[in-house]
Design a protein that fits this description.
It is built from six helices and three strands. The chain has about 140 residues and is α/β, with parallel strands linked by helices. It has a domain of about 90 residues. The longest helix has 12 residues. The N terminus is likely disordered. It comes from Arsenicicoccus piscis. This is Bacterial bifunctional deaminase-reductase C-terminal domain-containing protein. Pfam families: RibD_C.
Length: about 140
């Protein structure tokens, strides 16, 4: 889930600006999927969507606009490598750019099994609380 303020996709850089007149953050639900509707392969891996330079740059730009990311445990553990594996970011300027964009937002992980985050700027919650999400929408610059 992601919220930013009124994203505009009117230019080729896919800028997602935040404006001060926005009264409430926008909640954006983002999910990669194949054209036939799959989000994971038969083993549960979520890396089945091909990533080219343009798609990767668009994901990076989206992450730059995010103030808070709401994760489930499995996706959080998958994405945490952008902070826990410095060699990944060192493979290219694009990877370093995405790594920096991923590290910046606050991350809230909903899990009944995790008790301690493995990344900075992260907190663990035992269950999704809709009222908490509504409060975040009113008080933060963006939720993802």
């Amino acid at each position: 889930m992601a919220t930013g303020s009124n994203p505009t996709r009117s230019n080729p850089t896919h800028s997602y600006p935040h404006t001060e007149e926005t009264a409430m953050s926008k909640l954006i639900y983002a999910m990669n999927m194949t054209l036939d509707g799959y989000v994971a392969d038969e083993h549960g891996a979520v890396d089945l969507v091909p990533m080219n330079a343009d798609v990767f740059a668009d994901h990076t730009e989206l992450h730059r606009s995010i103030g808070t990311i709401l994760y489930g445990r499995r996706l959080y553990e998958t994405m945490a490598v952008w902070e826990t594996d410095p060699e990944l970011a060192a493979t290219s300027p694009a990877m370093a750019d995405f790594s920096a964009a991923w590290k910046r937002p606050v991350k809230i992980v909903y899990s009944t099994t995790l008790t301690t985050p493995i990344t900075d700027n992260t907190r663990i919650e035992p269950a999704l609380d809709i009222e908490q999400v509504r409060t975040l929408k009113r008080t933060t610059a963006g939720i993802s």
